[in-house]
Amino acid sequence: EDDHFQSSDMSYDKLLGGLLAPGFKEGSCLSRYQSSLYRKTSPHKPSSYLLSRLRNYEDLHKRCGPYTKSYNRTVQQLRSGDIISSEDSLECKYVVWISFSGLGNRILTVASAFLYAILTNRVLLIDPGKDMPDLFCEPFPETSWFLPTDFPLKSKFDLFEQKTPNSYGNMVKKNMLNTSAQLFPSYLYLHLVHDYDDNDKLLFCDQDQELVSKVPWLIMKSDNYFVPSLFLSPSFGQELSRLFPQKATVFYHLSRYLFHPSNQVWGLITRYYQTYLAKADERIGIQVRVFEYKTGPYQHVMDQILACTLKHKVLPEISQKEQPLVPSSKPKSKAVLVTSLSSGYFENLRNMYWENPTVSGDLIGVYQPSHEEFQQTEKRLHNRKAWAEMYLLSLTDVLVTSAWSTFGYVAQGLGGLKPLILLKPENHTVPDPPCLQVISMEPCFHAPPFYDCKTKSGADTGKIVPHVRHCEDMSWGLKLV
Ligand code: GDP
Predict the structure, then answer these.
(1) Residue 317 belongs to domain with CATH number
(2) Could you say which of 190, 261, 326, 417 would form a disulfide bridge with 265 (CB–CB 3.0 to 4.6 Å)?
(3) What is the 308 CA–ligand 1 centroid distance (Å)?
(4) Counting atoms of ligand 1 from 1, which one is nearest the CA of 288?
(5) Is 389:357 a contact under the CB 8 Å cutoff?
């Protein structure tokens, strides 16, 4: 409806192949319609089945969203006591996502929770936490995905943890749930944080999903991209294959559908891109995340970055000759975007390409938007910058990321990029090889269950189906390929 684009602008696919629903006011979320101006044409088309499920989801969300009749009725049920009869079929059931952990983790868990909601015909509501509305636009038309602040259980969110009696795992352990019962709890807490136990992990089994399906409110806390385990469930697996015939595009499509930077963040992204990156012949992203007590810079990390980027010809060699080389007639300009909490790696690279000519004659510009020194979850601009930087990395042509980092996974998934991943250094030495090219652009599930629901025994979940494998950067992790 509200279409301000001129016909000359229509050459690009602003709805991303039908992934995005029309019907939003453009000014309220500029990134939704402008993102395609910054990206190459996508080689991955969403399936028509995914598109139809998204449109159905949007209808459901509109019917069940905050303060609708159905929402109010279901909240009433929650207030009026802990149990409902299984006969009483409510129109709307919910997954509530609790805001938890770093921003990269949060983006991965919102995507996982949304996919779980689609698979179970539930409505996803997002706890705004400290800054979610400041960072992201509303993804669903004519409704809100934010959980109202007067939601009855809200004050308990911070207290929910592995030992919470209402958690699925603890209810199972105490045998308090069974299919033949007439009464069910009105809510369950799903603890999917990395410290979850074997009972919590049963949630990924089909028979357990049947139990959970009766409960109107599922309150979820997670810091993991648990999508690979959904693919291991036979009932979800079938549906997922229809939704994603190209299995390793789950996060790619869902992230482009869900995560639109707010106008403030979009300003950070576009100003930076246009000033420093747009004019280069090639854009290179290097995401440096060091999991050490101190931010650094560390010499072994610098050595690793150089070993990786020179070996794989991401960056050109510098000339050892004292005399500068005769400049090539048409030097290529390359913009290197470095993101890190520390500025040391960036300064090193920038000086290296200023103080020395490159063998190829290429001109290397090195840029780093921020160096925040340490993780500061309370500061508003801090997470705006973190989100802007993830997004900017996703707009590069060649990407280098750090092992174990969800910040890097978001950039690679959103950008549809298969980065070189800097492997985790042990004992402050450069690993050999320093980096590997990942086999798919999907994020890694860091804490997957090792349990076969069918045989009810331990199993290597990276060996059950061909499209769920162990990750390049974490041998026990799981990812879609
Ligand atoms: P992960 O810890 O690497 O998996 O990523 P998360 O995003 O979950 O948590 C790390 C947090 O530290 C981010 O959300 C940022 O707040 C901050 N951070 C880490 N690396 C960077 C960076 O390169 N730039 C900025 N701006 N913030 C960063």
Answers:
(1) 3.40.50.11350
(2) 261
(3) 22
(4) 23
(5) no
How distant is the alpha carbon of residue 175 from its chain centre?
34
399 alpha carbon – ligand 1 mean position (Å): 17
Positions in the chain short of pLDDT 70 = 1-12, 81-89, 179, 322-328, 378
Check: pTM over 0.90? Answer yes or no.
yes
Q: Which residues contact 399 (CB under 8 A, 6 or more apart)?
A: 284, 285, 286, 287, 393, 411, 412, 415, 417, 419, 420
| Side-chain half-sphere CA neighbours of 475 within 13 A | 1
Query: CA end-to-end span of the chain, whole Å?
Result: 38
**How many C-beta atoms lie closer than 10 Å to residue 153's C-beta?**
19
How high is the pLDDT of residue 379?
76
Judge if 229 and 309 occupy the same domain: no
For residue 327, the model assigns a pLDDT of 59
Domain that holds residue 115: 43-247
Amino acid at 253: H
Which ligand 1 atom lies nearest to the CA of residue 223? Answer: 8
Distance (Å) from CA 294 to ligand 1 centroid: 14
233 and 295 together in one domain: no
Residues 217 and 356 in one domain: no
* Residue 243 three-state SS: helix
Whether the predicted interface score ipTM is above 0.85: yes
